[in-house]
Specification:
Blueprint (H helix, E strand, L loop, with lengths): L2 E6 L5 E14 L4 E7 L3 E6 L2 E5 L3 H15 L5 E6 L4 H6 L7 E6 L2 H10 L5 H4 L5 E5 L2 H7 L4 E7 L13 H10 E10 L7 H14 L2 E8 L7 E8 L22 H6 L5 H6 L2
Parallel strand pairs: 6-7, 6-9, 7-8, 9-10
Antiparallel strand pairs: 1-2, 2-3, 3-4, 4-5, 10-12, 11-12
């Protein structure tokens, strides 16, 4: 008998992958948590039936959500990651020599523990208790509300805008992000698919533009996410994406991100430009 796992990406669209083995299932206070080993993507993290990451293609998302904002800022020292329970974002952040400390606030401890056990390649910074990393199990929304003038870069590595991640897509949250950033700080958030989440993207763009003087969006191509095309929203107090200067910056070994992609990823198709006008 064959075992298949399907994410219903919209009411009419699903992504299905054949599964070798279910490695872990659990129900936390917040969501259903599963790790499966698939033939196509290898080990995958699944939350409430939604594919979050996989061993085969995780590098695309994690490199792009971390390196693009960190290279936009000329000297990022203090970084906050909200969410990111698989550990991939902080794995990339701690590689930057300029970063002195990264705080990670993840609401669901079960996700962290599952990632440590079943996704060791992704969760390496958490598993090894990297000296730059301070991991907190708690509410990222409350953490942001309490913070002020504290961070150079904030990375909102959240799940979809349902369940525990819903409050991370509100205007009130973005106001608190602005307050938590230093005077030249910037933030990035994963903001779903330009094909299937257009109303959400329009709302986020409006909210962020109302708060931040510089707003933009960039793209990456991620096989397990709806439509393959995934967008990230930037809000910045000072630095513009096209002004990023990598001439004397640290060069990291990567699999997706490149110096050319740093600016090229902001070249948006016309239909995406229209979403964020």
């Amino acid at each position: 008998m064959q075992l298949w796992c399907t994410e219903n990406q919209t009411e009419y669209l699903g992504l299905t992958t054949r599964v070798k083995e279910t490695l872990f299932t659990g129900k936390s206070e917040f969501q259903d948590v599963a790790v499966v080993d698939s033939y196509q993507f290898g080990r995958m993290l699944v939350l409430d039936g939604v594919f979050q990451t996989s061993i085969a293609e995780e590098f695309v998302y994690h490199e792009m959500i971390a390196h693009v904002p960190l290279y936009m800022h000329p000297n990022p020292k203090r970084v906050l990651v909200i969410g990111g329970g698989d550990g991939g974002a902080v794995r990339e952040v701690v590689r930057h020599d300029s970063v002195e400390k990264v705080e990670m606030v993840e609401i669901d401890g079960m996700v962290v523990e599952a990632a440590k056990k079943y996704l060791p390649e992704i969760s390496v910074a958490m598993r090894e208790n990297h000296p730059k990393l301070e991991l907190k199990i708690g509410d990222g929304i409350a953490h942001m509300a309490a913070a002020e003038n504290a961070y150079d870069v904030i990375i909102v590595d959240c799940s979809d805008p349902i369940g525990p991640g819903e409050g991370l897509f509100t205007k009130e949250f973005y106001k608190n992000v602005h307050k938590a950033l230093k005077e030249d700080g910037l933030f990035v958030q994963q903001t779903e698919s330009p094909f299937y989440h257009q109303e959400l993207i329009k709302k986020i763009a409006k909210d962020v533009k109302d708060i931040f003087p510089i707003h933009d969006m960039y793209l990456a191509y991620i096989p397990i996410y709806p439509g393959g095309m995934h967008c990230f929203t930037i809000g910045s107090k000072k630095y513009k994406p096209m002004d990023a200067d990598l001439t004397n910056r640290q060069k990291l070994e990567t699999r997706y991100y490149t110096a050319a992609i740093q600016k090229a990823c902001f070249a948006l198709p016309q239909f995406v430009q229209e979403l964020i006008k």
